[in-house]
Design goal:
Helix 6 packs parallel to helix 8 and helix 25 runs parallel beside helix 27. The protein is built from 35 helices and no strands. Helix content is 57%, strand content 0%.
C-alpha cells in the first residue's frame, strides 16, 4: 500500500517560460535547465516529473546531472521528486540521492528520504545515513527517515522505529506505524503498540495500513477496533478500514463483537455507514456470504451522495467511486463478491440484474461488474448485458464488455468485437480482455485482438499483448512478430514491452526467432524491463546476447509479420 506523505516544500505551479512538448529531446531539456534560472529549472523538472515512468526515464539522467551544478534547495527538491516519479529507473541514482541526506535544508533531506523509500532495498546502502536522521530536530526529517527505513524493510532498525511511536509529532507516530508494518514479520511484536494509535484520528490511516501489512496473525486480535473505524467521519479512514477488513476476513467472521459491529453499521441511520459496512462485507468474500440477504435488501436503498463536493472542486480530494456514494452500488458490488458463496447465487443475480435497466449510469455499470464477478450463476443475463454495448456512457460499455467476457457467452460476440474499435480506450481495453477470456469460442477473432497491439493507447497495447499470452502459444505464436515490433518501437511504454516479453517467452521456436530484439533489452536502464528480458530468454532457452542498439529483430520497420498487427507468413 502506498504511504501518503505530507509536508515538504512545493515547487510553485506557474507558467514556465519553457513549455514541455511531447516530442522534446534531451538536448532541449538540457538547454532549458542550464540556461534558465533556478526557479525556471525547478519548474521545468517538476513538469517533467508529472509524466509517466517510461517518459521520465528518458530524461532522468539529464535531471540528475543538475545536482553537480550546486543548485538551490527548490531545485534539489524537484530532482528528488522526479527520481521518485521515475520508479525503477530512479533506483540507479540511489547514491546521488543519498548525498542529499547531508544537506543543511530539512526539506531537501525529507524529499531525499522519500525518494530512497520508493527505491526499497535497492537503496539500503544509505541505511546508516538514514538511521542517523531518526533523531533529527526536524519532525519533517524524522518522518522522512522513518518512511525510508520502512521502504528498506530495515528490520535491524525496528527498535528505533518503534521508539518513534512516542514521538511528539502524531504524523511521525503514524509513519512509524506504517514502517513497522512494512518490516513485516519482525514488525509483528509491535502490533499492540501500533493498534493503540487508532485512538489518534490523524494516525488512523497509517495504522490501518500497518495492520494490513502485518496480516491476520498479528492484527487479528484487533479486528473489532478495525470495524469501529468503518464508522469514522473521514472517508480515507473508512476506505483504509475496508482494506484491513478484507485481510482479516476470517478473524472477523469468527469474532462475535466484530460481526455485531458490522450488523449495526448495516442498519445504521447514516447512509455513509451503511455503505462502508456493505463495502467491507464485499471485501470479505466468502466470509461475508452470511450477510447476502441484508445486502439484497440494500439494493433498494436510495441513499446517494453527490459526486461533486467543495473538496473535489478545489482539488483537495478526488471524486469518490460510486460504491462509496450510492448504497445500491455498494450492495451490488458486495454481492458480486459474496453471492457465489451462498446457496442462492442465481436468485441474487436476478435481483442485481434489475439495475441493468436503471436510469442511472453508475448503477448500470456496477451491476455489470457484479454480474461478471458472479460468473456462471449470472450467465443467463449475458444478453441483457450485451444490450449495454451501445450505452451512451463509456464506463457502462467497458463494464459490459468485462462482464460478457467473464460470463463466457458467445451469442453476441460480433457486437463484442465491435467494441474493439470503440472511441474510448477503456472500452477497447476491456473488450480485448473479454475476447481473450472466451478462449476457443473466440479463436477466429484472435487476429482482431492482435491488431490492438497498434492501438493509440499504451494500456490497450499492453492488454493486447497479455491477451496473446493468455490464448496460449498454439494460436498466439502466429503473432510473435507483431509482439517483437513493440520491443523495437521507439518510445514504447515499458509496461507494453514487459507484456510483450512475457508473451514471447511462451511461444517457443516462434518467439526464439526474435531473441536478438529481446537481448537488446537485457542492458536497458529499467530494472523491470531487464528482468523481463532475461526471463524471456531463459524461457526460450536462449543465452542472453548483448548486441548494439538497433541491430535486433530486423530494425523498427520489420515486425516479422503481416503488417504491424498481422500474423506471420
Amino acid at each position: 500500500m502506498a504511504l501518503q506523505f505530507y509536508g515538504g516544500i512545493g515547487v510553485e505551479r506557474r507558467a514556465s517560460p519553457w513549455h514541455i512538448r511531447a516530442e522534446v529531446s534531451k538536448d532541449d531539456v538540457w538547454n532549458a535547465i542550464v540556461h534558465g534560472s533556478d526557479d525556471h529549472t525547478a519548474v521545468t523538472i517538476a513538469e517533467l516529473a508529472q509524466r509517466n515512468e517510461s517518459e521520465i526515464a528518458v530524461y532522468i539522467d539529464v535531471i540528475v546531472t543538475v545536482l553537480t551544478m550546486r543548485p538551490r534547495s527548490e531545485v534539489k527538491v524537484a530532482i528528488c521528486r522526479a527520481i521518485r516519479a521515475a520508479g525503477a529507473a530512479g533506483t540507479l541514482y540511489a547514491h546521488e540521492v543519498s548525498q542529499l541526506l547531508h544537506d543543511p535544508d530539512p526539506h531537501v533531506k525529507y524529499e531525499a528520504c522519500l525518494a530512497l523509500a520508493g527505491m526499497g532495498e535497492a537503496a539500503s546502502t544509505a541505511l546508516v545515513a538514514v538511521r542517523s536522521l531518526l533523531t533529527d530536530a526536524s519532525e519533517l526529517v524524522r518522518y522522512g527517515a522513518c518512511a525510508a527505513l520502512g521502504g528498506f524493510g530495515a528490520v535491524s532498525c525496528m527498535d528505533e522505529v518503534a521508539a518513534l511511536l512516542s514521538d511528539p509529532s502524531l504524523e511521525v507516530q503514524g509513519v512509524a506505524c506504517w514502517a513497522l508494518g512494512k518490516m513485516s514479520l519482525s514488525g509483528r511484536p509491535s502490533a499492540l503498540a501500533v493498534a493503540e494509535r487508532l485512538k489518534e484520528p490523524i494516525c488512523r490511516v497509517p495504522v490501518l495500513r500497518a495492520l494490513a501489512l502485518m496480516g491476520p496473525a498479528s492484527a487479528g486480535p484487533y479486528c473489532e477496533q478495525v470495524c469501529e473505524c468503518l464508522a469514522d467521519e473521514d472517508d480515507g479512514v473508512r476506505m483504509a478500514a475496508v482494506v484491513v477488513v478484507g485481510h482479516l476476513a476470517e478473524a472477523i467472521s469468527n469474532s462475535m463483537e466484530a460481526e455485531a459491529k458490522l450488523n449495526d453499521l448495516l442498519l445504521s441511520e447514516s447512509g455513509r455507514l451503511r455503505v462502508a459496512a456493505a463495502t467491507a462485507l464485499g471485501s470479505m468474500g466468502r466470509f461475508g456470504a452470511d450477510h447476502v440477504d441484508a445486502l439484497v435488501e440494500m439494493l433498494h436503498d436510495d441513499f446517494v451522495e453527490p459526486a461533486t463536493t467543495a473538496f473535489t472542486i478545489g482539488g483537495v480530494r478526488p471524486r469518490l467511486p460510486a460504491i462509496w456514494r450510492r448504497a445500491s452500488c455498494a450492495a451490488a458490488a458486495a454481492l458480486g463478491r459474496t453471492a457465489v458463496y451462498s446457496g442462492d447465487a442465481r436468485k441474487v443475480a436476478e435481483e442485481v440484474s434489475r439495475l441493468l435497466h436503471s436510469s442511472d449510469w453508475e448503477e448500470r455499470a456496477i451491476a455489470c461488474e457484479a454480474l461478471g464477478n458472479m460468473g456462471a450463476s449470472a450467465r443467463h443475463h449475458a444478453m441483457s448485458i450485451a444490450d449495454l454495448f451501445a450505452d451512451s456512457r463509456h464506463a457502462v460499455r467497458a463494464q459490459a464488455a468485462f462482464a460478457y467476457g467473464k460470463l463466457g457467452n458467445i451469442d453476441c460476440i460480433d457486437h463484442l468485437i465491435g467494441l474493439l474499435e470503440d472511441k474510448s480506450p477503456s472500452v477497447r481495453r476491456e473488450a480485448t480482455r473479454a475476447v481473450a477470456r472466451l478462449d476457443e469460442d473466440a479463436c477466429e477473432y484472435i487476429g482482431e485482438v492482435a491488431r490492438r497491439l497498434c492501438d493509440t493507447s499504451p494500456e490497450v497495447r499492453k492488454v493486447a499483448a497479455e491477451a496473446l499470452a493468455l490464448v496460449g502459444p498454439r494460436r498466439g505464436r502466429y503473432y510473435a512478430g507483431a509482439l517483437a515490433q513493440r520491443l523495437v518501437t521507439t518510445g514504447e511504454a515499458t509496461a507494453v514491452k514487459i507484456a510483450a516479453l512475457r508473451a514471447l517467452g511462451g511461444m517457443g521456436e516462434r518467439g526464439a526467432v526474435y531473441a536478438d530484439a529481446v537481448s537488446e533489452l537485457v542492458n536497458d536502464c529499467t530494472p523491470e524491463l531487464r528482468e523481463a528480458a532475461e526471463k524471456c530468454l531463459r524461457s526460450l532457452g536462449v543465452k542472453a546476447m548483448l548486441l548494439p542498439i538497433g541491430s535486433a529483430g530486423g530494425g523498427e520497420n520489420e515486425g516479422g509479420g503481416e503488417g504491424e498487427g498481422g500474423a506471420e507468413e
